[in-house]
Design goal:
Helix content: 25-40%
Number of domains: 1
CATH class: Mainly Alpha
Shape: globular
Largest sheet: 2 strands, antiparallel
Structural class: mainly alpha
Order of helices and strands: HEEHEEEEHHHHHH
Strand order of the largest sheet: 1-4
CATH architecture: Orthogonal Bundle
Length: 245
């Protein structure tokens, strides 16, 4: 059911004080592990490399590919000793953050990155979109457990959004409440024939003992942030310089 590998690259960026500033769907890519023969056409991955026949991928449960954040052209690295990040607004692929519509042209890019990631996940949970970035579709039931976390990540007030460490902790807590049956549900709505094939495939895996999640080693929980560092990653506007212990 899980559409993405745990966001370790996101935490790596944060540990190095890097704000991506354009975390949209096209900037997160899946490695081609689902094509064991390597025969696929990158622009249309359902076709083979010659673009003549259909490709033959395996399922992600069979290989659990990793996902990678790309395109750091708008990214910036910051030094906490120089104070809170204060950056001019850049209108990237996602133009819906509330702070991009405020009068001030300056904002902290880290809460905006959290909004971008929340909006990206919302596109998976609510696949039907309307102009303005607002979806009126009901959440896809197998992914509806993510809705409380998405709401926090997309709060109108940037200061009240969680840090990436808090996002991972909340995601882990929500995921641990799911049963194996929950984890075997499809990650997107399916037509009846595809739904039948999915149920049959998951029944075979359950019978043969194939786990719905891979046994990746768990990362240690991130250490708690000091008040100054929490402000560094969450405060919307602040003084041009301050001491961050």
């Amino acid at each position: 059911m899980r559409p993405m590998h745990p966001p370790r690259e996101s935490t790596t960026c944060i540990k190095n004080y890097v704000a991506h500033r354009d975390c949209i769907f096209t900037n997160i890519v899946q490695e081609p592990a689902v094509y064991p023969d390597g025969d696929f056409y990158p622009a249309e991955p359902w076709m083979d490399s010659a673009h003549e026949h259909l490709a033959h991928p395996i399922t992600r449960t069979e290989c659990w590919p990793r996902y990678h954040i790309i395109d750091f052209g708008l990214s910036r690295q910051y030094d906490p000793s120089h104070g809170l990040p204060r950056e001019g607004i850049i209108l990237g692929g996602d133009k819906s953050p509330p702070e991009h519509r405020m009068e001030s042209p300056i904002c902290n890019p880290f809460p905006t990155d959290i909004y971008f990631l929340g909006n990206l996940v919302r596109g998976l949970v609510r696949p039907t979109w309307l102009p303005g970035g607002v979806s009126q579709a009901p959440p896809h039931r197998p992914l509806s457990f993510l809705c409380p976390l998405i709401d926090q990540m997309m709060r109108k007030e940037p200061d009240l959004r969680p840090t990436i460490g808090e996002v991972i902790a909340q995601f882990t807590a929500l995921r641990e409440r799911l049963t194996k049956a929950d984890l075997r549900l499809p990650a997107r709505p399916l037509y009846w024939w595809d739904s039948f094939k999915h149920r049959l495939r998951q029944a075979k895996r359950a019978w043969s003992g194939v786990l719905p999640l891979p046994l990746y080693p768990s990362d240690p929980p991130p250490p708690p942030l000091s008040d100054g560092m929490h402000a560094f990653f969450t405060q919307y506007l602040g003084p041009s310089s301050c001491h961050l212990p």
